[in-house]
Input
Amino acid sequence: MVFNNKKPTEAGEMKKKYFLITFVLTILLIASFLNIYPVIASDELFLVGIVKNIDYITGIVTVDIKTESCKGIRNFKALDLAEIEGLKDKKISFFIDSSICQNGKIYKMYRITLLRQRGKM
Output
């Protein structure tokens, strides 16, 4: 006794369609639970130092870096000259557009913040 009136090929195609729909919905459900979103990663390094010299023509700032990952006198390129105005001999913090600090390379500096030095108001 046959309960299925459909031909064998139609039944196989229906199973494939059902499986495909179930598979796609399962993947979408798992992705929504895992919060999978495309992310753009950017490398940056946070540094602290004292400004030794500012060249307002080129935007090159010479900083004596105190942070262990990049210690020493280094040159950086300021993106916004207004941010560096009056910062000579001041302690600042800033970010560079790299996760490493190579000697002799000039990195772009941004998000520059003037820090209060100890004992001075």
User: Anything to note?
Assistant: The longest strand covers residues 45-55. The chain has two helices and five strands.
